[in-house]
Amino acid sequence: MKLLSARITLKVADYFKRNQEAVGVVIVHDETPKGLVMRDRLFQHLAGQYAYSLYWNRTIDSIMDASPLIVDEQMAVEVVSQMATSRAIHHLYDLVIITSHGKMAGIASIRTI
């Protein structure tokens, strides 16, 4: 897991290139999660004919999921599991962001949950 406060698409892509095992990153501001960028989705955005030049120096806000599944660490795993598996099919395997008192605490994959 990596928390990125620098919101430039270039920095997120560079992080993924340096960390081949990373499947996603959480975008945070003041320790509060603001969005999620999944590796595959980012590189799909950048793969188009003009996408590289369109997105490369823009803020990550235009690509990130601004409404990821965010749960409190006190929530029952059954409730989190239900919420995670009820997401749209293209978000089904996205990471789940875990908070503690509204602040970033960690992430979990569907497999882990």
Give your account of this protein's structure.
The protein has 113 residues and is an alpha/beta fold. It contains four helices and six strands. It has a three-stranded mixed sheet. It has a three-stranded mixed sheet with strand order 4-5-6, with no helix packed on it. Strand 2 (24-29) and strand 3 (32-38) form a beta hairpin. It is globular and about 45 Å long.
Q: What fraction of the residues are assigned to beta strands by DSSP? A: 25-35%
Following the backbone from N to C, one meets helices and strands in this order, namely EHEEHHEHEE
Computed structural class: alpha/beta
Largest β sheet strand count, sense and barrel closure: 3 strands, mixed
**End-to-end separation:** 16 Å
Map the helices and strands.
Layout: E1 3-4, H1 9-18, E2 24-29, E3 32-38, H2 39-46, H3 51-55, E4 70-72, H4 77-85, E5 96-100, E6 103-108
Parallel strand pairs: 1-2, 4-5
Antiparallel strand pairs: 2-3, 5-6
